[in-house]
Amino acid sequence: MKKLKAVFFGTPDFSCPSLELLANHPQIDLQLVVSMPDRKAGRGQKLQSPPVIEYCKNNRINFYQTENINKDEELLAKLEELNADFFLVLAFAQFLGSKVLNMPTIGCFNIHTSLLPKYRGAAPIQYALLNGDNETGVSIQKMVKKMDAGDIVKESKLPISFEETGGQLYTRLKFAASLTLNDFIQDMISDDISSYKQNEEDVTFAPTLKKEDGHIKFSEKTYNEIHNQVRALKPWPGTFCFLNGKRLKVLEISPYTGNKLNAGEIKISDNKILVGSKDKTIRLDMIQLEGKKACRDTDAVNGLTNKYDTFEIS
Fold first, then answer.
1. pLDDT digits (tens, 9 = 90+) for 34-85
2. How many Å is the Cα radius of gyration of the chain?
3. Can you tell me the distance from the alpha carbon of 68 to that of 72, in angstroms, rounded to the nearest whole number?
4. Which long-range contacts (CB under 8 A, 24 or more apart) does 290-298 make?
5. DSSP, res 14
6. pLDDT tens per residue, range 124-158
């Protein structure tokens, strides 16, 4: 039985289930894994390998690490020599230039965690939640030089619940990606790849998130908008506001059905911390004060009322 020769490009733990599928698929000959270099991490700033490389070391898979695939002559020569049938890219963190894109006989394919052309870019999972979408998915596209713009060769859809967080959706999509890849491998083996072009009029983008995107501005948003912000950015970069000028992490919220506060107004009532949004009063159920451990609002209230006479939130 002829096997398809593959090269995999990936870096974080998100890539590992799809890498594992390629490594163990009976009709795939995984010849090489390419990833980013080791980085310093943790308090000791020791060099740490990407999760994909750790998987390769533990499973005796050939790997190569590079800072710039398009300028690494040793790697480019190695990839030419392999004469692979396809390259598979999943969260590699580098763009592939024309020379690399033209190497494999079937093509270079990228797995993206949205229903393209929606949310091209680095943070499709978070933007689906920020916008309150009730559906997302996995798209496999044949790569071109333009970011996430290639023809779609496989797609699968996933529903999103109103309470789902960024971390939870990340985990579901991680495994959905490998299942979708498995279906696409069968198409390649059967020489039955179908594709369709993305509608450029429907394109939206999901740029890289920054820490400041987690700042909650209660006076400017509705409850649902703030709820989506909190769950989308959990666990990273997280959400926060400023209480009397001190940074306050907001970990969990819920709607409060008692007295309605004005937008941006804060009040402590029955040991609960309440804040007004544009349409509802919000309870800050779980918080983390600057320099303190995360706790329920009811556990933090005594310390706050002992410290402050009045409260301002921004």
1. 999 999 988 788 999 999 999 999 999 999 999 999 999 999 999 999 999 9
2. 23
3. 6
4. 290/246, 290/247, 290/248, 294/249, 294/251, 297/271, 297/272, 297/273, 298/271, 298/272
5. G
6. 999 999 999 999 999 999 999 999 999 999 999 99
Residue bearing tokens 């309470």: 163
CB of 4 closer than 8 Å to CB of 188: yes
What letter would DSSP give residue 309? Answer: S
**Does the model's pTM come out above 0.85?**
yes
Question: Residues 39, 42, 48, 53: is their CA dihedral positive or negative?
Answer: negative
Q: pLDDT tier at 305 (50, 70, 90 boundaries)?
A: confident
Alpha carbon of residue 223 to chain centroid: 24
CA 26 to chain centroid, in Å, comes to 30
Distance between CA atoms of 124 and 136, rounded to whole angstroms? 9
Beta strand pairing status for 63-65 and 28-35?
A: parallel
- Give every CB contact of residue 140 below 8 A, 6+ residues apart in sequence: 109, 110, 111, 112, 152, 153, 154, 155, 180, 181, 184
Structure tokens at 83: 């004469």
For 262-298, the pLDDT digits (tens) are: 999 999 999 999 999 999 999 999 999 988 899 999 9
Residue 304, Cβ neighbours under 10 Å: how many?
17
pLDDT band at 310 (very low <50, low <70, confident <90, very high): confident
Helices (H), the chain: 16-24, 51-59, 73-82, 98-101, 124-130, 166-189, 223-232, 297-307
